[in-house]
Design brief:
- By secondary structure, the chain is of the alpha/beta class.
- The protein has a single domain, classed as Mannitol-specific EII, Chain A (3-Layer(aba) Sandwich).
- It contains five helices and eight strands; from the N terminus they run E-E-H-H-E-E-E-E-E-H-H-H-E.
- Strands 2, 3, 4, 5, 6 and 7 form a six-stranded mixed β-sheet that branches. It has a two-stranded antiparallel ribbon with strand order 1-8.
Length: about 160
């Protein structure tokens, strides 16, 4: 009988890919473009990346199909050449953003995910974890009630969710 090796992957907490400096709890954006620009500007300033490059990369993906899957959530994303690690920026809009959502409803929770061109498992695992959050009405209510970046990060930490790769 042939022995099968099972590769073990370290457990990565979802909260570990979130930087408090990349969280906006009072987004000003009202449209998809404004929301992408707002979060991209934050990432560009904090990570010293080209804002226009981020925006164009994310919009190119949005032209393929909206990343607003319903349940008041959107997951705009892009793969960027030269990026070494995943970058996640979170935005909460109390008023809601017109994001061309599949269900037609405004979006209140936006997760901008930027990954290296070759980091498929990082992106897919992170997206899956955030999508799972968006399917849980109680967790979404807690996320949307966060008053500060520290509060939102603590809320997600308390969920104890992990990223499967």
């Amino acid at each position: 009988m042939q022995e099968r090796r099972i590769q073990s992957h370290p457990v990565v907490k979802l909260s570990s890919v979130i930087d408090e400096a990349l969280i906006v709890c009072d987004m000003k954006a009202r449209t998809k473009l404004e929301a992408i620009e707002e979060l991209s500007s934050l990432v560009a300033a904090k990570r010293r990346l080209g804002k226009e490059f981020i925006i164009e990369s994310v919009l190119a993906r949005e032209r393929v199909c909206t990343t607003a899957i319903g349940r008041r959530s959107a997951f705009p994303h892009a793969r960027l050449a030269g990026l070494k690690q995943i970058i996640v920026a979170l935005g909460i809009s109390k008023a809601g953003v017109d994001f061309d959502s599949l269900d037609g409803a405004p979006v209140n929770f936006i997760v901008l995910i930027l990954t290296a061109e070759t980091a498929s498992s990082d992106y897919l695992g992170t997206l899956a974890a955030f999508a799972a959050l968006s399917r849980d009405p109680q967790k979404m209510a807690m996320i949307l009630s966060a008053e500060s970046a520290a509060d939102l990060l603590a809320t997600i930490q308390n969920f104890g969710m992990t990223i499967e790769s």
